[in-house]
Structure formats: structure tokens, C-alpha cells
Design brief:
This protein is α+β, with helices and mostly antiparallel strands. The protein contains 13 helices and twelve strands. The radius of gyration is 22 Å and the shape is globular.
Length: 303
């Protein structure tokens, strides 16, 4: 398959699209309560086209329309970048959008994406892709309602959801801006809304305001996941501790040290997962990584 997404490739693929054949549905457990989350994974051919569409068309033409608070699945942004926005604050407020991707429906895309692509978007081969074609390649039909929505599992869904949510991001930022001195910091990573502040007096008002704004746009807050973390507790954003700068949670560091200690005392091989743990620690805090990688290399040399 050609590396460039072409107008003919788009037309040919759409002619053969069948949601049942092109997506595989399955469920995964998520969270402490092990609630099931339904995913729809595209077949390999559609996945390749969606990746081309994302990198060659959507990013170059629409990235600048995303709100600055939208930090999930964005080029050049990491979880550490999100966490850095919320360091050294007294209160951390975290809220979750209920059934996020299934609720990014055709109506919401018509209101947010269509105005940006109504004349089509250029392809690198000189052709053009139109709004209806983008929808055909990136949405899936709900057999119960007949409506189309973004499938959770498609490479294009996170970015398109950022476009669809941009008006809400703007509204939430306007609420925050209405407070003197911009007392809050707000970021969104897909369906995770995070706020941080040093002022307890407006936490309740913020939660009420956010819930109202989100509802006005056809979404709802999963109240079971709304969480307020005070300064005497470990505050985490996307798994990163933010009480004093960004750092790896103590539990993870202890787990890795325990693995390395066990390998050193029993002369057993270091399990492969430690490399992934070390890579993640490096992406969060280089100093903590340096202390652990020295121990890792010392054990490897002894084996």
C-alpha cells in the first residue's frame, strides 16, 4: 500500500466498508471496580488508512484548532507535560466524562468538525478528502440508535474527540477565567478532566460549573469518579505524583527496587517488564531514574 493517502485509495476503501467486518468489538476491565469498557478495534487495513489520515491530513490541518487545555493524544505532548501543569497545588480535582467516545456522535461532529472541513481537506497526493469521507473512515454505526459515533480503539478517535470537545474546553476555560486571578489550572486528557488550585473556597463552585457546562453540550459527568485530593494526601495526575514537582509514585519505585533486590539476592534473571518500568520512570523524573538504573546495571553485570 502506498505510503501517501490518495483520493483513489479513500474512494476504493469506502466502497467496501462494512462496520461489522471492519471492526472487532471486545471488552476490557478498567479501574479498581473492574468495570467493563467496550472497545472497537479496526481491522489492519482500516487501521493503516486511519493512521495515514491522522498524520497526513488531520494533524497538519486541524491541530491548531484544538484548545490548549486539550493535552491527550497530541503530538509532542506527554503525560509528564500534563502533570507539570498541576504541581505544587493544595487541591487537585479530577472528574470523568461518562461514556466519552460513544457520546461523540454525528450531531456533535456536525457542530464542531464540519465547520472546519466543509470545503474538504487536502491530501498529500494533490487530491482532497471530504467531510462525509472522513466520517465514513472514522465513525461506526450504533445498531440500536442508528447514530454514528467515534469508536474507542480507532487511532483517529482521540484526536477527533479533541476537536469535538473544543467548545466545551473553551467554556470550561471561560468559567475559570471568570474567577479573579485565574485561580485554577485546567487540563483534559481524553475523558479525564483535571483541575488544581490553592483555594478551597471555589472547589464546590467549580465542580457545579463544570457539571453544568458538560451537560449543556450533551455529555455527563461520572460522579462516582469525581475526586478531590488535599495536600496531605498523595496527588496523582495520569499516574504521576505532583505534590512537589513531578515524581514517580513511591509504590512503583518500591516495587522496582524489590524486583532488583530479589534478582540480586537469588541470582535470578531480571524480568523483561523492568525495562518498561525504567523507561517510564525516565520519562517522568530523570534523577529517580538515574538512581535506579545504576542498581539495574550493577545487577546485570553480575549475571
Amino acid at each position: 500500500m502506498n505510503e501517501l493517502l490518495s483520493e483513489q485509495e479513500v474512494k476504493d476503501f469506502i466502497l467496501n466498508i462494512n462496520c461489522k467486518a471492519f471492526y472487532t468489538s471486545f471488552s476490557i476491565s478498567k479501574g479498581k471496580n473492574r468495570r467493563r469498557r467496550k472497545l472497537q478495534a479496526p481491522c489492519e487495513g482500516l487501521k493503516i488508512i486511519q493512521k495515514k489520515l491522522l498524520k497526513q491530513v488531520l494533524y497538519p490541518n486541524l491541530l491548531h484548532f484544538c484548545h490548549s487545555a486539550s493535552m491527550g493524544f497530541m503530538p509532542m505532548l506527554s503525560c509528564r507535560d500534563v502533570a507539570l501543569q498541576h504541581t505544587n497545588k493544595r487541591y487537585l480535582i479530577q472528574m470523568d466524562i461518562e461514556d466519552f467516545f460513544p457520546n461523540v456522535t454525528l450531531v456533535k461532529l456536525d457542530n464542531t468538525l464540519l465547520p472546519l472541513v466543509k470545503n474538504g481537506l487536502p491530501l498529500l497526493d494533490g487530491g482532497k478528502i471530504h467531510y462525509s469521507q472522513i466520517l465514513a473512515l472514522t465513525t461506526i454505526r450504533n445498531p440500536k440508535t442508528g447514530d454514528h459515533y467515534l469508536p474507542q480503539g480507532a487511532p483517529t478517535s482521540p484526536f477527533l474527540s479533541n476537536i469535538a470537545f473544543r467548545l466545551i474546553d473553551k467554556g470550561l476555560s471561560a468559567i475559570l477565567g471568570s474567577y479573579p486571578g485565574h485561580l485554577y489550572t485546567y487540563t483534559r486528557y481524553a475523558d479525564d478532566l483535571t483541575f488544581s488550585t490553592n483555594h478551597a473556597s471555589i472547589v464546590k463552585k467549580l465542580i457545579q460549573g463544570v457539571t453544568s457546562i458538560v451537560k449543556q453540550h450533551g455529555y455527563s459527568i461520572n460522579t462516582r469518579k469525581t475526586k478531590i485530593t488535599k495536600p496531605n494526601k498523595q496527588q496523582r495526575v495520569l499516574g504521576i505524583t505532583v505534590n512537589e514537582g513531578v515524581s514517580v509514585p513511591r509504590k512503583i519505585r518500591r516495587e522496582l527496587r524489590a524486583i532488583l533486590h530479589r534478582c540480586a539476592t537469588t541470582n535470578s534473571l531480571i524480568p523483561p517488564k523492568t525495562q518498561g518500568m525504567l523507561a517510564w520512570i525516565y520519562s517522568v523524573n530523570a534523577e529517580q531514574y538515574a538512581r535506579l538504573i545504576n542498581r539495574y546495571h550493577h545487577i546485570k553485570e553480575q549475571q
